[in-house]
Write a structure and sequence with these properties.
single chain, alpha+beta, Butyryl-Coa Dehydrogenase, subunit A, domain 1, Butyryl-CoA Dehydrogenase, subunit A, domain 2, 3 domains, seven-stranded mixed beta sheet, two-stranded antiparallel ribbon, 17 helices, 9 strands, 11% strand
Length: 577
Amino acid sequence: MAYRAPLGDMQFVLQHWLRADRDWREMPAFAEVDLDLAGQVLEEAARFASQVLAPLNTPGDRQGCRLVDGEVITPEGFPAAYRAYVEGGWPALACALEQGGQGLPQVLDAALLEMLYASNHAWAMYTGIAHGAYLCLKTHASPELQARYLPGIVSGETLPTMCLTEPQAGSDVGLLRCRAEPLDDGSYAVSGNKLFISGGEHDLSHDILHLVLARLPDAPAGSRGVSLLLVPKWLDGGERNGVHCDGLEHKLGIRGSATCALRFEGARGWLVGRPHGGLAAMFVMMNSARLHVGLQGLGHAEAAWQVARDYALERRQMRAPRHPEGVAPALADPIHLHPAMRRILLELRVRTEGMRAIGYWAAHWLDIAAEAADPAQRAKAETLAALLTPVVKASFTSQGFELASKALQVFGGYGYTAEFPIEQTLRDSRIAMIYEGSNEIQANDLLLRKVLGDGGEGFGLLLAELRAEAQASGSVYADALGEVCDGLEGLLPELQAFSAGDGEYPYRAAGDFLQLCSISLLAFAWARSARCAEGLAQPLRREKLESAGFCFDYLLPEFDRQMAAVRAARAPLAFIG
C-alpha cells in the first residue's frame, strides 16, 4: 500500500482554518509552539507512516496474529515498527512535560493518529489507547501508581489496554461479573473473563497494563458498583501476573491487531480512583478513545480517496462526454473524466477534507479546555469538545466505511479482489462503527445527554460558532449556512416538546439527529474553507472553492432529508418477535 500523508491539507487546516498558532500564543503551555515546529512534527510523522507502517499493512493483514503457548506473535515487522515509534518519541507527543512528555498540542497528536490509522490501522490499535490511559491515570490514580506506571506509558516502554467487555456485558457495563477481592497489602485479587480486548497480549512491549472494570465485594448492583483496577502483566521482581490469553478472535478486518480473550486468575491489581467509581475514571479514557476512533474513520476515508483517485487517473474506459480545456478526446479516456466517477471522487475529497477540519477543530477545543488562561473559555471549550465527540466518533466512522465502499466502486471488479488495497480498507473500517461505544450509543449520548440534558445550552454554543461563520465577512456561502443555523435553532424546541410527550421519541430520532449535525458541520467546514481560501494561491484556492461548491450543491440537500427524518421519528416503531 502506498500512502502519502496529506500534509498540504493538514497545514491548511492548522494555519488558515483553525489559525491554531494564534491560540497557542495565548496558552502558556504552548507559547513556544509555532507553525514551523508543527510542520516539522507532521513531516516526521508522515515519513514514519509512509515508510515504516504502510509497507506492513497488507502483509500484516495476510499474516494476522498467532497464539503460541499463551503468547501472541504479531505480524512480521510489527515489533520493529513499534521500536522505531518509541525511538522517535511519538508516545510522548501530547503528554505533559512534568511526566516526561513533549507537551505538544493534542491537535498535532490528532494529525499523527490520522496518519497512523490511514497507513496501518491494525498496527495502530496497539498504541491507540495509550494517551487515554495516560489521561486516566494522570486524573484518577494515586501518586504512587502515577510514579510507578506513568513514565512507562509516556516513554512507550509499556502499552495499556482497556478491559470492559465480558461475554454477557457489552454495551451494558452494569452486567459485568469480574471480581476484585481486597488483599492485606492494599492491592486486589482480580478474577474473571474479558472479551474483545485489543492488544490484550502481544510482543511489541515487554509489559502490558490492563485497566480492568471489576466489582468489589460490597459493590451495589448495576453500573454504580463498578471499580477500575490497574493490572500489570508483570509484577515487580519479574513475576508473571495471573493474566492469561485464552484465544484470539478471527475477524473481518484489522487482522494484524490481536483481539484477545483474557482470563484473570487472582491477578494482582491496584484501585484507580475511588471504590465503585470506575466508570467516571474509565470515561476519561473512553472519551479520548472515542475521538481517536473518529480519526480512524478519517484515516480510512483518506486512504480510500488516495487509491481511488490514483486508479481513476490511469484506468481507461470509453470516451467521456466532455473534456477539460486542453484535453483531447481519446478512444478510451481515464475514468476520472466520466461524470459518474467525478461525482464519487469529489465526494471522497470533500467529505474527507471536511472531516479533517472538524476533527482537528474538536482536538483544538480539547487543547483550549486544558490550557486556556481564561476559565470561561476553558469551560466553553470543554462543553464544545464534549458535544463534538459523539458526532466525530459516529459520523466519521460511518463515513469511513461508506466512502471506502464508494471508492471500491471506482475499481469495478478489481476492487473486490485482494490485488488492490481498497478491499482491506473496506474490511478494516467496519469495526470502528461498533467499538468504543457503538454509533447508536453515540447518537443517544448526543441527543439525550448533550443536547436535551442541559436544555440545549451546549447546543446553543455550537450553533453560535456556526452562525458566527455564516455572518463572517466574505463568506460565499453565508446565506446557506445561515439557513442551516435557522433550521437547527427552530428544531430544538420541537425536540424538547416531542420528547416531553413521548419518552421513546429521542431514542428513535437520535441516529438521524446525529447525521443532521454531521451534515451541518460539513457545511460549516466548507463555508469556512471557502472564506479562508480566498487569499490563497492557485491551485489550492481553486480546489477549495470547487470543493465548497460541491458540498453546498450536492451534499447539503441531505440536511432537509435528515430534518424530515428527525420529525418523522414521532411515529412509533412496531415490536419485532
